[in-house]
Design goal:
alpha+beta, 159 residues, globular, 17% strand, 4 strands
Length: 159
């Protein structure tokens, strides 16, 4: 009986810990890429100019949002594609550092300038809605992979 119980526990362990998921493995080594700071700043300025033209408050830069945007951009570079993987975890992490009412994000890849990324988001109804949404803070991460492809993450939150 003890052997069967040990076998059953072993099978459950393999099934539970070996199951497929789109989430990355915690502790997965991710190389931190260098930020394209000028593009990040330009994109924030463009988004805020657009919001002001709509009589919407400009977004304040947030170090907390920037931190999690950078982590996600590095993750996308390691993965080799854009994604919203683990968004709920990012939102929870932000909320654990600053109390927020809501969190959203836009991601993009392969645009060479802030204007190109903005135009892409602007022509997408869901991305445009996020940029124009009822948010107060943001952090924008723009980085390149080893091939020179740009990856963008913009996190938004309302406090």
């Amino acid at each position: 009986m003890k052997t069967k119980l040990h076998y059953a526990v072993s099978v459950l362990f393999v099934v539970f810990f070996g199951s497929c998921t789109s989430d990355p493995i915690e502790g997965m080594p991710v190389i931190e890429a260098e930020n394209a700071i000028t593009i990040e700043q330009d994109l924030l300025e463009i988004v805020n100019e657009h919001r002001l033209a709509l009589n919407t408050i400009p977004l304040k830069f947030s170090n907390v949002a920037y931190k999690y945007a950078n982590i996600h951009t590095d993750y996308m570079i390691a993965k080799g594609s854009i994604s919203h993987d683990n968004f709920s975890s990012r939102a929870s992490n932000i909320n654990s550092e600053v109390t927020v009412d809501m969190v959203a994000e836009n991601v993009a890849k392969d645009y060479q300038t802030a204007v190109e990324a903005f135009q892409s988001w602007y022509t997408s109804s869901s991305h445009k809605k996020t940029m124009e949404g009822d948010f107060t803070h943001t952090g924008i991460s723009v980085k390149t992979d080893n091939l020179g492809n740009y990856y963008f993450t913009q996190l938004f939150y309302k406090q």
